[in-house]
Design a protein that fits this description.
This protein is of the alpha+beta class. It folds into 2 domains: 35-132 and 284-425, Orthogonal Bundle (MetI-like fold), CATH 1.10.3720; 157-275, no CATH class. It contains 12 helices and 8 strands. It has helices spanning 6-34, 48-55, 57-88, 94-102, 109-119, 128-140, 290-315, 319-327, 332-360, 364-369, 381-391, 395-425; strands spanning 157-160, 163-166, 176-180, 205-211, 236-241, 244-250, 256-259, 267-270. The strands form 2 sheets. Strands 1-2-8-5-6 form a 5-stranded antiparallel sheet, with no helix packed on it. Helix 4 runs antiparallel to helix 7 (290-315) and helix 8 runs antiparallel to helix 9 (332-360). The mean pLDDT is 88.
Length: 426
């Protein structure tokens, strides 16, 4: 068609063909041949390596996780890309927003994996995910300020049901001392004040609960508030008679409390809720959540890619069709669902299929984010290929996994190429 001689065309294509043969065709052919040999590479193993794909527990887990990846990651990333592309059309700073959403694509998988390994850290002081989760949780359910508190030597309290109760019944007009230890001074509530001994009140049960510890050997008096000791503000105290709570209250900032006459003759209880460990968030990288957590990091990276492609398709959409639908009385949701989405269906299909091809080969994020304790639960085929080939020394099985991955990717690639050619013809 161009008048170029075939020899000249072949000369120009030769470098590309050499690179394609060296980097694609030869590795594929070698992997296919190697998949039929045993661990040493000398003995013919037949289909034993392929049989291991369906009998090895690690490979089966990896296959199951790949199915989860293929179903959820492209779907959610494409849906978010569609939402972002449609919404940014109506936002004044839409271009800046698109830039921010697309920016993670400039980060390598390695860097993204390191970032999200920190994001999902179990410690709320380090991991952003748990910091947010714990903050929301503590907004509706306050954590205890005294998780390590416990009775000291010669204490009038004994353990019972996760909390502590007095050994003897208390009497009205006779102040009660409820000393505890085990709470570091720097983690006491900010409102804690110097503990004082409660004054007796006729017909009422009064007392003090405080941190009965003074720094320095032999300093301070056990069982009595000292000048440097702080009260336990907010400590809940219950009066229990015959197994029933007859009165309850909370300690003031200086640790003092007052119970009504109904508490006379009851035993005082510091319920277990006072000593509950603070909520520490979710184990994002534990066995049950590690795969969804890693998929979340993938979506963070690739939603911008989907948004840019869908926005390009949206820019080429005939606007008169949208206006005609609005003139006919359709609301924005109906226009989006019945006009915009159907017209964008070819673009959405290309984006979703491209992401499917990508997630079938995902390796970096899983290898970096998943800790060793839960890497088996987050395993995928590409990671299992690496482990079988390099960690376990089974190159035959690794080659079989590589061939299996190729067979999974080829139909999806064929579908994508066919759809792209159809779009070009239009």
């Amino acid at each position: 068609m161009t008048g170029t001689r075939r020899s000249v065309a072949a000369l120009f294509l030769l470098p590309a063909l050499v690179l394609l043969g060296a980097l694609v065709v030869y590795p594929i052919g070698y992997s296919v041949v190697r998949s039929f040999y045993d661990q040493s590479g000398d003995g013919f193993a037949g289909v034993d390596n392929y049989r291991a794909l369906f009998t090895d527990d690690g490979i089966r887990t990896a296959l199951e996780n790949n199915v989860i990846w293929v179903v959820f990651a492209p779907t959610v990333a494409t849906a978010l890309g569609l939402i972002f592309a449609v919404l940014t059309e109506r936002v004044r700073w839409g271009t800046a927003f698109k830039l921010v959403v697309f920016m993670p694509m400039a980060i390598s998988m390695l860097a993204a994996g390191i970032i999200f390994r920190l994001v999902y850290d179990q410690d709320p002081d380090k991991g952003v995910a748990n910091a947010v989760w714990v903050g929301v949780h503590d907004t509706f359910a306050a954590s205890s300020a005294f998780p390590k508190a416990h009775p000291g030597r010669d204490s009038p309290l004994v353990a019972e049901g996760g909390g502590f109760v007095t050994r003897e019944a208390v009497r009205a007009g006779d102040p009660v001392a409820l000393p505890l230890v085990g709470v570091a001074p720097d983690v006491l509530p900010d409102g804690a004040k110097r503990a004082v001994a409660a004054a007796a009140e006729p017909g009422k049960v009064t007392g003090t609960t405080w941190q009965d510890f003074t720094r320095g050997k032999g300093v301070g008096t056990l069982g009595a508030p000292d000048p440097s000791e702080l009260g336990y503000p907010g400590m809940r105290i219950e009066a229990v008679k015959d197994g029933r709570v007859v009165a309850s209250t909370e300690a003031a900032a200086d640790g003092t409390f007052t119970l009504p006459a109904a508490a006379d003759g009851a035993r005082l209880r510091l319920p277990a809720g006072n000593f509950a460990e603070p909520y520490n968030g979710l184990d994002w990288l534990g066995p049950s959540l590690v795969t969804p957590a890693i998929i979340g990091s993938y979506i963070w990276m690739w939603a911008g890619f989907a948004m840019v492609l869908i926005a390009a398709g949206l820019a080429g959409m005939p606007r008169e069709l949208l206006e005609a639908a609005r003139v006919d009385g359709a609301n924005e949701w109906q226009v989006f669902r019945r006009v915009t989405v159907p017209l964008l269906a070819p673009v959405l299909a290309v984006v979703a299929v491209t992401l499917m091809i990508n997630v079938l080969k995902v390796f970096d994020l899983v290898f970096i984010i998943a800790p060793g304790s839960s890497q088996d639960d987050a395993n995928v085929l590409a990671l299992e290929l690496y482990r079988k080939g390099f960690s376990e020394g089974r190159p035959g099985v690794a080659s079989a996994i590589a061939v299996f991955l190729l067979l999974l990717v080829i139909p999806v690639m064929w579908f994508n190429v066919r759809r792209l050619r159809r779009e070009v013809r239009r």
